[in-house]
Write a structure and sequence with these properties.
Layout lengths: L6 E12 L4 E7 L10 E5 L6 E5 L8 E7 L6 H6 L6 E8 L6 H4 L3 E7 L4 H9 L4 E8 L16 E5 L7 E2 L2 H7 L7 E6 L1 H13 L7 E5 L2
The protein binds flavin-adenine dinucleotide.
The site of flavin-adenine dinucleotide has 22 residues, from strand 4, strand 5 and helix 1.
Length: 221
């Protein structure tokens, strides 16, 4: 992995796209931030000690930075960021993290991305950053309207698993999907989202003979 310098900047908000009542994409100026797809930044209001980590959602070639945020009812920063209007400022530190793709993965290795909720963000950045990835993306959400910007993904590569309605490709959790359709060994597995999903999928993949070296994870909460 290339060494990238972290920096701290006050950045201008360009716009916000509201994808559902609670989930939005906030776009800020990039101001020269260098990052690798899969890394995250820390974001909050300027001068405010409360900051949270967010995976970068946009691609490395874009001249802005985007993050995909779910507003948490009892949360602090996810609510504050939602209120920011175009022209307002946010404080950004980073980039951080090692949830990135190596050369072999960018050059045709079979990849399986497994996300819960906004855990889809680093995979969106991978797909925007690297042309021709050989991937399947399994996305677990509660309801079909959480298939955030699914049109980004190549046809047949995106599998939506909905646990609370039947608007997805599969009705059930990602773990149910992976039990119904056991995986092939030889691929690399990238898991991102809540810790329960990651633990359950990790155990399931090990039971299906996937080596632990082939499993990579980023835990959100
Ligand atoms: C490396 C990393 C990357 C992350 N990337 C993203 C991202 O791309 N998008 C994103 O929305 N969040 C992401 N998160 C989670 C994010 O950092 C915050 O925890 C989240 O936005 C809540 O912050 P808050 O201040 O609103 O709530 P807080 O006051 O910090 O937390 C309130 C409660 O909500 C829980 N919680 C946190 N996230 C969720 C969630 N998604 N669903 C349900 N409960 C949750 C917390 O565990 C806590 O119990 C990431 C976390 C990490 C560690």
């Amino acid at each position: 992995m290339a060494i990238v310098k972290t920096k701290n900047s006050i950045v201008r908000v360009l716009k916000t796209r509201h994808l559902t009542n609670s989930t939005y994409v906030i776009r800020t100026k990039r101001d020269g931030l260098e990052f690798e797809a899969g890394q995250y930044i820390s974001l909050g209001l300027p001068g405010n000690a409360e900051k949270r980590e967010y995976s970068i959602y946009s691609g490395t070639e874009e001249d802005y930075i985007e993050v995909l945020v779910k507003e948490i009812d009892e949360g602090i920063v996810s609510k504050q960021l939602k209120q920011l209007q175009p022209g307002a400022h946010a404080e950004m530190d980073g980039p951080f993290g090692f949830f990135t793709l190596d050369e072999a993965s960018r050059s045709g290795k079979e990849l399986v991305f497994i996300a819960s909720g906004t855990g889809i963000a680093p995979f969106h950045s991978f797909i925007k950053s690297y042309r021709g990835l050989n991937y399947k993306l399994v996305h677990g959400v509660k309801y079909g309207d959480e298939a955030y910007e699914f049109e980004t993904y190549s046809p047949g590569s995106y599998i939506l698993c909905t646990s609370r309605d039947n608007q997805g490709d599969y009705h059930g959790r990602v773990t149910d999907f992976l039990m119904a359709q056991p995986v092939k060994t030889g691929a690399d597995y990238y898991l991102c989202g809540n810790s329960q999903m990651i633990h359950d999928v990790y155990d399931l993949l090990k039971d299906q003979q996937v080596g632990t070296d082939s499993i990579h994870a980023e835990v959100y909460f």
